[in-house]
Structure formats: structure tokens, C-alpha cells
Amino acid sequence: MSSAAVGVVALALALSACSSSPESAPSQSPTGTTTSTPGATQSPTEPPTPGSTPSTPGSSGKPGGPPTWTKLLKQPVDGQHVVTALPKYLVTRGSDEAGTTTITDRANRRVVVRHVPPAGFVAQSPVVIDERWALIEEIRSDGPSPEIRAYRYDLTSGARTDLAKQRALPRISEPEIGAYDGVFAYSSTDSSNRSCLIVAELASLKSRSVTCVADPGYVADPVVSADSVTFSQITAPSTPQRCKRLFTAALSGGPARPIAAAKNCIQWSGASLRGATIWSEVGAADPDQYQSKAYLRTGADSPTQSLGQIVTGTIVACGNWIHWEVRTVTNGAESFQLQRWQPGIIRPQRIYATPPDTALTAPTCQHNTLILEAAHLGAGAKYTEALQVTTA
Q1: Residue 204 CA to its chain's centroid (Å)
Q2: Could you report the per-residue pLDDT of 171-187, keeping only the tens digit for each?
Q3: What is residue 99's three-state secondary structure?
Q4: Tell me, what's the pLDDT at 17?
Q5: Residues 6 or more apart from 314 whose CB is under 8 A from it?
Q6: Over the stretch 192-220, which tens digit does the pLDDT of each residue have?
Q7: What is the rounded CA–CA span in Å between residue 247 and residue 332?
Q8: pLDDT for 354 beyond 60
Q9: Residues 369, 390: contact at Cβ < 8 Å?
């Protein structure tokens, strides 16, 4: 894997502070190094300035053509990184070890929340946010007392509530959270020591259990779309009988249904939208878990269509589309593309392509807006730029 490919993994890990869960991130190739530029990190006492300069890499913005991208922020590689954004708020995370998280009012650049994890804790992504509330998670995975904490901030006052002390929600037992427009999904352990998938609303803190798996199995990889949650169930972990399967459930309620696999027990993650599902498969022992084979099924009983190889862990639904990243090598030059598909179209569309030696984070979504960060790691100035595009 080239330095740009390693950069994707390294930068994605830096932004998400991925958990120690074996399902949280694909393994990294040992070859190559990530280039970063020391110095010039923005002071945490000064909120970053959200940009508004149009940027249209690989897009025309014309009706029927690829969408037009807009720059959110440009920073040094070791500066501030965009976690997510709303029309009113910009959420960034510093490159410090703890992952200091800042929520800024975009109109007046006033810092509304600055969350600094205590010693031993690391902030996680995503930040679940709506126009009034934000949920920030932090974990301590090292040492004899691992712990997950989650706090809900009132964005009108900055007041913070420890959700574990309030006991408003089933306790979070795995760091991975899937979120979409104030609805989020996560793993919790019930009184019978089962791993359960919980779907909750940020504003009301109402929640429901979708399904549970008996110990030592567990649920993982929740991905939330406008109408569904897609997740994995791992049974018999750490044994030759290990099996990882994907399921999807409607946010409106009802039981989860399995997503039939192309090859049993090696499904990784996916997203469902309007009855269709895109997912990827890669074996736990595969030497290259960074890339996986992706598939599409337009309905529960529809035939499986191959989408080829994608970058593992990058499938996300946003608006009326499902998105993912693809790595290609042409004449020895490596590049990455963001592709998308929606029910009703024949083949995927490419809506973003990187120049050489540019790494991409996995895309995230808020309010029909897709957010992507590109790290330019080649010769010359090294920097990251966060981009957004409307996907409705």
C-alpha cells in the first residue's frame, strides 16, 4: 500500500479515535508511512473559520451532473479536523492525543462547547448533533478499568449532562455509534449479559432495543440512514466458527431482518435505504482487510449485484443516496473516488476524485449534507481540506 493509502487509514483513525473493538477498523498494511506537517496547529482558544469558497473537484454542478462541493475548512494536517457540520454549527476535533472537540456557532464563530477528555480518555466520532443538542463520547481502553462515557450538551447554554449518571439511556458498551439527523444507534449490554442494539433519539432520549445477541457474541458497526439501521452480529468470536452477519431494521420499528450474503459469515458493514442495501464482505483473516468486495441488492428478494472492491468501512447513507469510497491504481499512480447510488439508477455515479497522494476520510452525513476530508500529502504544502455537498 502506498503512502496515500496508509494516509487514509491513519487520518481516518486520527479523526475517529477508533475503538479497540476488532470490528471498528480494517487492519493497516505495514508498508508506507504517513507524512504530516508539524507546527501551525490552530490554538484551541480560537475557533476555526468556516470557509465558503466554492470547490468543485471533479464536478460540474449542472443539473443531472455531479454535485458542487463547498469548502468547509482548510488546515494543517495536524490541525483541526471537521467531524460534522450543521447550518448553524461546525464540529471540529484537534489533533491532540485526547481529541479535544469544539462546537462553534457558524454565524458569529462563538465557541459553544469545548470538550476536553480527562487524562487516559480519548474522544470518539461521530458527534451526534441536532439544532439543540450534541452527544460526545469518550473512552478509556487502556489499563485495568476500561470505560465509556457519553455526555449530552445543551447547545443553547453549554450545559453538560452525564448520561450514565442520569440513566436516561441503556448504557453504551461499545464505542461505535451510528448517527443520522439526531437519531443514533449503539451497543448496550443488558441484565442477561447480552449485547443489544439500541436506537435512540437525541432530543427526547427515547430508545428501543432492536435485537440482542447472547454472550460471547455481540452487535457492532451500526450505520443509520433516513429510514433504517444496518448493523452486524458476530457470533462465536475468537473461534474457528466465528460468523459475522449483517442485519437491517426500519427506524419506525419492527424486527431486524438478515441481509443475505454473497459468502457466508464475512460480511463487514453496510447501509440500507428505501428497501435497498449496499454492503461489503471481507474475511477476518484476510491479509488485506483495508479493501473489501461490495454488493448491492435493490430489495430483500432481489438478486445480488457486484460493485467490485471498495475501501472497507466507508459505506454511508446520506439523503437519498448511499455512498462509498474506491481505490484505483493507474500506471502506478494511486487515487481515490467517492461513488454513490440510489434506487432507480442503473449504475453508480462518481462524484469526487482525488489528485495523486491525497487521502480521504470516510464520509459522514448530517441533514442531507455529505462531509468529506481530503489530506494532501504529496510534494509541496501538506494540508487537509474539509468539503461538503448536498445530497438530497
Answers
A1: 23
A2: 999 999 999 999 999 99
A3: coil
A4: 38
A5: 323, 324, 325, 362, 363
A6: 999 999 999 999 999 999 999 999 999 99
A7: 38
A8: yes
A9: yes
The dihedral sign for the CA sequence 141, 290, 284, 191: positive
C-alpha to C-alpha distance for 170 and 3, rounded to whole angstroms = 41
Q: What is the secondary structure of 292-314 as a DSSP string? A: EEEEEESSTTSPPEEEEEEETT-
From CA 283, how far away is CA 163, in angstroms rounded?
36
- For 160, phi and psi rounded to 5 degrees? -115, 140
Q: Can you tell me the distance from the alpha carbon of 102 to that of 92, in angstroms, rounded to the nearest whole number?
A: 5
Q: Cis peptide leading into 126, omega within 30 of 0?
A: yes
Measured in degrees and rounded to the nearest 5, phi and psi for residue 14 equal -65, -40
> Over the range 243-254, which residues count as b (16 or more CB within 10 Å of their CB) and which as e?
bbbbbbbbbeee
d(CA 326, CA 187): 28
Is 68 within 8 Å of 56 (Cβ atoms)?
A: yes
The residue whose grid cell reads 457540520 is 85
How far apart, in whole angstroms, are the C-alpha atoms of residue 296 and residue 56? 28
Burial degree of 32 (CB within 10 A; 0-12, 13-18, 19+)? middle
Helices (H) and strands (E) in the chain, counts: 2, 31
CB atoms within 10 A of CB 217: 17
Q: Are strands 321-330 and 333-341 parallel, antiparallel or unpaired?
A: antiparallel
For the segment 17-41, what is each residue's pLDDT rounded down to a tens digit?
Answer: 333 343 544 443 322 222 222 223 3
Round to whole Å and give the CA distance between 287 and 10: 18
Residue 248 corresponds to which cell in the numbers above? 437491517
- Identity of residue 14: A
Residue 266: DSSP 8-state: B
**Rg, the chain, Cα only:** 20
CA angle, corner 295, sides to 294 and 296, nearest 5? 140
Q: Which of 32, 203, 14 is nearest to 122 (CA)?
A: 14
Helix or strand or coil: residue 168? coil
Under DSSP, the state recorded for 372 is: E
Q: What is the pTM of this model?
A: 0.84
Residue in 241, 217, 221 with CA at minimum distance from that of residue 230: 221
| Residue with the three cell numbers 508506507 | 32
Supply φ then ψ for residue 288, to 5 degrees.
-120, 80
